[in-house]
Design brief:
The structure holds two protein chains of two kinds.
Chain A lengths: L2 H12 L6 H20 L2 H18 L9 H16 L13 H4 L3 E4 L2 E4 L15 H12 L3 H12 L4 H8 L3 H29 L1
Antiparallel strand pairs in A: 1-2
Helix pairs in contact in A: 1-2, 2-3, 2-4, 3-4, 4-8, 6-9, 7-9, 8-9
Chain B lengths: L3 H7 L2 H5 L5 H12 L2 H20 L12 H13 L1
Classes of the chains: A mainly alpha, B mainly alpha.
Chain lengths: 202, 82
């Protein structure tokens, strides 16, 4: 569901047009489930987060003054519900990541410096990923500290704008950009590590 | 990834990939990367990481079960009351 459609449906709902109900609920449920699943790692939890969010959204929809802000508004509610549920994360410690720790390692060869990273050439650019890759991705995302995981999921998976993401997370747009970059680098590093472990185990 | 210039570029790679940098900075970075095999390799892995995240949005496995009718009724009631 594109942003225009979500905004349009929200406007119609707020104006009392009930024919917008089904498409709005269905589209939002899908997005909220996806976000919550990637965020907390459990299907059941994710379904509950999506349902709880929808309920909160409908209970306070009239308070949303600007329907244009429906996406950040909804995701902010969802993020808070996720946060309450996994306050004590067993996966991800709360920590700031520095650029230095996200740099790849390298080794000196006779023909120059070489990166010590996995072979990424077999991974798809755009087409569907294998079940194995998806599992690796899911686990790696869950290991990211909360502030980075939220930014990454909102920007790269849900494709919210930098401004919308800033609104969801209550931070400025520069902080969103910094976090997004570190989140991507950290995810790349975790994926890389997993791929190298797999290669070594073969 | 191995020189000072690589390190400077490393800090701006997301903005570079998202096309958010001024054209002159962007050109400078492209110019460096073209001649730097470690940077090519690293940028490729970062690009794929971002691509995989975007790809998650269309994965069929990430679909929830339909909403219970009882919840839909509650949502509709909340909407009417609101």
């Amino acid at each position: 569901m594109s942003q225009v459609t979500e905004v349009e449906l929200a406007k119609r709902l707020m104006a009392g047009d009930t024919s917008a109900f089904e498409p709005f609920v269905e589209g939002m449920q899908g997005r909220l489930f996806r976000f919550a699943f990637a965020n907390c790692g459990q299907r059941e939890d994710a379904e509950e987060v999506a349902q709880e969010t929808l309920l909160k959204v409908f209970e306070s929809l009239k308070q949303l003054r600007e329907p244009e802000r429906i996406r950040p508004w909804v995701f902010r509610i969802a993020k808070n519900i996720c946060y309450m549920r996994r306050r004590k994360s067993i996966y991800a410690p709360e920590e700031e990541l520095s650029l230095d720790q996200l740099m790849p390692g390298f080794r000196d060869d006779s023909d120059g410096r070489k990166l010590e990273i996995a072979d990424w050439s077999h991974l798809p650019e755009k087409e569907a990923m294998s079940a194995e890759t998806r599992e690796m991705l899911r686990k790696s995302i869950l290991e990211l500290p909360d502030i980075y995981r939220h930014t990454l999921l909102l920007r790269d998976m849900e494709e919210l704008s930098t401004e919308e993401t800033a609104e969801v997370l209550a931070i400025n747009t520069d902080a969103v950009k910094t976090r997004l970059h570190r989140a991507r680098l950290a995810l790349r590093q975790k994926m890389d590590h997993r791929m190298r472990m797999e290669t070594a185990a073969r | 990834m191995t020189t000072m210039e690589c390190r400077e570029i490393f800090a701006q790679l997301s903005e570079y990939l998202d096309g958010e940098l001024p054209p002159d900075v962007c050109e400078q970075i492209s110019g460096h990367i073209e001649d730097c095999p470690p940077c090519v390799e690293f940028v490729e892995s970062l690009k794929k990481t971002v691509g995989l995240c975007k790809g998650m949005a269309v994965e069929v496995e990430a679909a929830p079960r339909p909403l219970p009718e009882e919840l839909k009724a509650r949502l509709m009631a909340a909407l009417r009351q609101g």
